[in-house]
Amino acid sequence: MPNSPALACPAPIFAPAPQRASPWTASLASPQSTFSSSTGLSSSGPSAFTAVSPTNSANSLTTSTATIYNRLMCIPKLLQEISNNKILRTRMNNTAYKPIPNNEKVDLARFRVKDPNEWLVDDVVAWMLDVAKRHNIPFEEMNMHKFSMLSGQEMLTMSEDCFLDRDPVFGNLIFSEFRKALDNSEDTTLDTVIGKFVDDEVATTSAPPTIVDMTSLGLQPMMSSITSTIQPSLPQPPQLSQLPVMQHQLPNLSSLTQVLSQQTFNPTILTPQQTVNAVQSLNQSLNLTPSLASSLAAGLTSGLSPLGVNYLPNGLNPASPLLAAQMPQPKLSPEMLKYSCTISTDYELPEDRSSESNDLLGKVRKNKDGKPRKRSQHTKGNKLWEFIRDALKDPSTCPSVVRWEDPVQGVFRIVESERLARLWGARKNNEKMTYEKLSRAMRTYYEKQILVPVPKTGMYPKKLVYKFGPGAHGWENVKVERFQ
DNA sequence: ATGGTCTTTCCTGCTT
DNA sequence: GAAGCAGGAAAGACCA
After folding, report:
1. A432 CA, B8 C1': separation in Å?
2. Engineering a disulfide at A428: which of A248, A375, A376, A445 sits with its beta carbon 3.0 to 4.6 angstroms away?
3. Where is this region: Disordered (predicted)?
4. CA→C1' distance for A462 and B16 (Å)
5. How far apart are alpha carbons A312 and A226 in whole angstroms?
6. Is residue A456's pLDDT more than 50?
7. Distance from residue A144 (CA) to nucleotide B16 (C1'), in Å?
């Protein structure tokens, strides 16, 4: 961890502090406007999201940002909705979301009725969303992830410089807003707050939907990459496609988009110098850590995903190692390859190509029955626990499929067991994989101390929770990356 | 060819 | 009753 002034600031606490032993169990969510973790969308009341007409430009979507900000909902779900681009395909996605075992409803307005020094980490995030809304700041541009693990009490101990360390752009604003919140908390009554919130809700839900410019949300780079990757026949977005980035420099599209998003540049006015800067940042980012996405995804146990990287209908990062076995790699023409930033050389070749190349080398190993062995059987480093570890680092699967309960202790939870099993099965070319089988394989890890029993302290859910043991490695770095 | 490793598959019994 | 957990047993696939 690099030395920085931030060291003087209280570090985010990841070990479950008493007040966040089970942050999602406290629910003040009203039944009328709650996003349930099982459906993602409220069954009653107006939907916050509407599908985009195919004729719509990729630059805009029909929604009400005010609604998004105000609605009581599960925070992880909220950000996941956004980061998954579900805004663009809410009514096109029929994926059934399995309920998360805990009651994970979190009230986005709860912070309003509490003193800032009582804010839990969820309240801090909700408050920051509110600040972003009130100041018309695309929340992707705020370093929300740098604050997402702080409680109100911890923020109280932070100086303005600490805020600036965490967010050089909006640190001052966040600091002053926090001070305002402290001042206001003394004379705020529950009734007035609730009354104001109800007014907001009425105003929000009765207001006509607005057209939101993707650029203003900071999503233009992402949309451009989607367009250039998935729909190469569309007019090429010059701002991205002209980046002189070579394929081998981009092991991960999430790195690209996140670095681009951190540039906070407007792609429509990208200057040559900005282009150079963006590429330099990319290279720096790629040399620093496996991916910025890892730190973001793994670091945000509350399920935050500051910028979406799930561009494909199955919700996976196009460059995800989990996807490599699940989907055939797009066969891109040289022209398309020139513009594509999503093909990773780190991942396995598609089966047909790998076997093809192996055939050429005369290295194909055959089973007893004479059939070529499955690709998964050729590969090393393809262990189940490694697969899960990597899934915990991948924003396309963490926190939607697996998520950290306590990254310091190595405690994680399987959110969507059957989906994880399908992904594992896809990785191993085994369509018959089920969670039952997967979990049996996981239980063999207890003997090797790759997994160890989860302490039954009541701190974690009783089911679908596992803990890495001394036999597992490579998961610890998430707690380092998240500070970077 | 062999033995070790890592699953995979099937199963029973138990707990939540 | 469903889902998940725990673990035995056997077998397949891979690898050195």
Report:
1. 10
2. A376
3. 35-57, 348-380
4. 8
5. 9
6. yes
7. 37
Nearest residue (CA) to C1' of B7: A441
Asked if the structure places residue A387 within a domain, the reply is: yes
Predicted pLDDT of residue A113: 65
The C1' atom of B1 and the CA atom of A368 lie apart, in whole Å, by: 14
DSSP, collapsed to helix, strand or coil, labels residue A391 as helix
Where among A213, A235, A251 does a domain terminate? A213
Residue A309's domain comprises: 298-481
Give a yes or no: residue A228 inside a domain.
Answer: no
A239 touches strand C (CB under 7 A): no
Specify whether A184 is located in the same domain as A302. no
Q: Which nucleotide is nearest to A442 (CA to C1')?
A: B7
**Which of A180, A213, A246 is a domain's end point?**
A213
Whether the CB-CB separation of A375 and A281 falls below 8 Å is answered with no
What pLDDT is stored for residue A140 in this prediction?
Answer: 60
* Domain annotation covers residue A232: no
The answer to whether A439 CB sits below 7 Å from nucleic acid chain B is no
On whether both A310 and A454 belong to a single domain, the answer is yes
Give dist(CA A403, CA A406) in Å, integer: 9
Predicted confidence (pLDDT) per residue in A270-310, tens digit: 333 443 343 344 333 333 333 233 333 333 333 333 222 23
Measured CA to CA, the distance from residue A353 to residue A196 in angstroms comes to 61
Å separating the CA of residue A434 from the C1' of nucleotide C8:
19
Is the distance from CB of A351 to CB of A239 less than 8 angstroms?
A: no
The pLDDT assigned to A137 comes to 75
Taking the C-alpha atoms of residue A383 and residue A88, their distance in angstroms, rounded to an integer, is 35
